[in-house]
Fold this protein.
Amino acid sequence: MTKSKSSFNKFLNICLAVLASAFFLIILFVVLGQTLDLRDAWEGYVSLSRQVEIIEEPVPQTDPYESPAHVSAFDAEMRDKNPDYVCWLKIDGADISYPVVRGEDNEKYLNHTFWGENNTYGSLFMDCRCEGEYVPNIIIYGHNARGGNMFGDLRKFLNEEYLSEHPVITLIENDRVIEYEIFSVRRTDINDPAYFVDFSAPGAFETFLERNDAPPDAAQILTLSTCVTGTNKNARLIVQGCIR
């Protein structure tokens, strides 16, 4: 009887040990998941904090529309901070106001800030193929970040009322302030004609305008691109504007 009871106790102890191990693993997975979320949130906070430093210090205190000389000084100061700086992108009334960089490829700034720091949120960056004095289609990429940061707020433009209240995208670039009137907002994929950049063939730009339902008298297109939340990794949200 004593031996049977001892065996039962051993069996009971093994069961309790197994249950304790399972419980520990469950707690570990929960804590790990929360840690990853907190790490992502912290990286986002650090990224945005650095962006705020950029925004608060060098942004013109006077209206750049009224002071071209100040815009020139602004551009020079930004390039001193990062030689990859190409322009500042802003949408009045929306929470989008960031520096735009262009790297040697389209990979670096997916996970690097304006300051060159590793970060999940990355930076707004221009397609590396968009170089030269005149670029018919300027493509700028940004992450669909949590809380509407970076290009997270682009999804708001799917609402017609919101679009009517925020119809203009502004670039401060090469000593100029350029306003692009939004003409298209759409969910699409990586094969969309908006990503076309080779305009060497005769009539290529006119064909491009037609395929993107752009105004036929458009002189230049600005394409903003971000990913779309979901299982389709090739899905994209595009906002396009133009100057005439």
Q: What stands out?
A: The chain has a mean pLDDT of 79. The helical segments are 2-56, 68-81, 160-165, 204-211. The two ends are 97 Å apart (CA to CA).
